[in-house]
Amino acid sequence: MKKFLVIAALVLSFASFSAVANAQTATPQGKVEGYVGVQYDRSNFDYRTTTSQSFRFNRNTDSVGFDAAVTGYVAKHVGLTADVSGVFTGGSDSTSLVTAMGGLTVKARQNPRFQPFARVLVGVAREKLAAQQLNFNFEDADTSFAALGGVGLDINVNHNSRVKVRLIQVDLLHTNTFGNGVNNFFNAGGTNRLRLGAGLVF
Question: Which pLDDT score is estimated for 37?
C-alpha cells in the first residue's frame, strides 16, 4: 500500500504541474465532464480453492471491456470522479471484473489542445470466475477493495466543441478478490492489472 501511495502522489504531482504550466492559455470549460471508452486489461490472476489444492487457476489474463466516468470540477484543475468499469473474457475458462470507484482527478483543462491528467480512485471490485479442469466445472465470485492510479491524455480536435478524444488512458488497478494472489507488488495478496483505454470526453 505504501508503494501505491507513492505512485498516487507522483501522478497527481505530474498533473498538477501540467495544470499550472498551462493555466495562462485559458479556454472555457464546463464544470462537469463525462467519459465513455473501451479498455484492455492485462492481469496475473491466481486462484486456488481454500479447502483443497486440487483446483488452481493461474495464468496471465487478457480482457476487454468498458469504462465510464463522470467528473465534477470543484476547482479549475481539480475534480471529484465517479467511475464504473467492467472487463470480460470468454471461452471455457472465463473471468469478469466490475468495479465502482470514486476519487480525485487533476487535469490541465486550460490547455486549448492537449490536456494531460492523473487520477487516484478507490472503491469495490466484483470478480467472477468460471473454469474447467479435468472435466470439472468450477464457478466462484468474490468482492473486495480496489485501488487505482492512472494518467492519460485528452486531445481537443475541435475548439468549437466540448467533445474531446481520450487518446490514451493508462491505469494500474489493484484488487484483493479471492484473497490469494501471488503478485506482491504491494507486498500483499491480490491481483495487479495494467489497463489501457481510449474513448470520448464530453
Answer: 98
CB 124 within 8 A of CB 145: yes
68 burial type by CB count under 10 A (0-12 exposed, 13-18 middle, 19+ buried): middle
Q: Provide the H-helix boundaries in the chain.
A: 2-21
Query: Does the global pTM surpass 0.85?
Result: no
CA dist., res. 162 & res. 156, Å (int):
8
Domains annotated for the chain, with CATH where assigned, are: 2-201 (2.40.160.20)
Q: What is d(CA 55, CA 38) in angstroms, rounded to the nearest whole number?
A: 32
Contact criterion met (CB below 8 Å) for 118 and 169: no
Per residue in 168-182, pLDDT (tens digit) is 999 999 998 876 544
Rounded Cα distance, 176 and 143, in Å: 8
Residue type, 11: V
Q: Where are the beta strands (DSSP E) in 49-163?
A: 56-73, 78-88, 94-107, 114-133, 136-155
Quick check: 117 pLDDT over 60?
A: yes
Phi, psi of 58 (to 5 degrees): -140, 110
Distance CA 37, CA 158 (A): 19
Work out whether strand 191-201 and strand 114-133 pair parallel, antiparallel, or are unpaired.
unpaired
Distance CA 124, CA 12 (A): 22
Per the CB < 8 A criterion, the answer to whether 104 and 120 are in contact is yes
